[in-house]
Write a structure and sequence with these properties.
The protein contains no helices and eleven strands. The protein is an all-beta fold.
């Protein structure tokens, strides 16, 4: 079992920055990638960013390219999402997901990000 816990959400003004964190625990040796997803009210959950343990370049949704940066610390099993130039349409609950070797994902509870204008 792998558990992931997000933190760092909050209220920020348009154009501001915020950093989300995701800490993984448990059988972290079975994790081969971690990613961020988000879900806005009335919308489906959508992919935001992905970082792979293999060292392949991270992937980003077109809507966040150039504004968001995903990174990780090996030793702490922690992943980050640095968000800059935030827009109202970035408002959503952000979820962390650990991609497991068996093809499944372990999800966190989510953290709210609200961008006010």
């Amino acid at each position: 079992q792998v558990q992931v816990v997000e933190s760092g959400g909050g209220l920020v003004q348009v154009g501001g920055s915020l950093r989300l964190s995701c800490a993984a625990s448990g059988r972290t040796g079975s994790v081969n990638a971690m990613g961020w997803f988000r879900q806005a009210p009335g919308k489906e959950r959508e992919f935001v960013a992905l970082i792979r343990w293999s060292g392949v370049s991270p992937s980003y949704a077109d809507s966040v390219k150039g504004r968001f940066t995903i990174s990780r610390t090996n030793a702490e099993n922690t992943m980050y999402l640095q968000m800059t130039s935030l827009k109202p349409e970035d408002t959503a609950v952000y979820y962390c997901a650990a991609y497991l070797e068996n093809g499944s994902k372990s999800w966190g509870q989510g953290t709210q990000v609200t961008v006010s204008s």
